Amino acid sequence: MSKxxxxxxxxxxxxxxxxxxxERDRRAxxxxxxxxxxAVAQNAIARHNDDVAALFDRLTEAERAQLLTILQKLIAEIxxxxxxxx
Length: 86
What we know:
The chain contains three helices and two strands. The N and C termini lie far apart (42 Å). A hairpin with a 7-residue loop joins strand 1 (17-21) and strand 2. The chain is 65% helix and 12% strand. It has a two-stranded antiparallel sheet with strand order 1-2.
């Protein structure tokens, strides 16, 4: 059993996901979050956002401005590299 399949079975056993048969292809199965799975995911996202916010709260206003400048420079480089004319 693959790691993905094993993980899917574990999540299924914990009732966080459910398997849904494909409408036309009997070989295919979708996996979707259950109501409980959605609640767990939303809770995890909220905790993650709180953790990230706490990290940024430790920065001074000047440090935040410096970080923003650096990130903007990096994003501009990524966008330039992905431009079709390159």
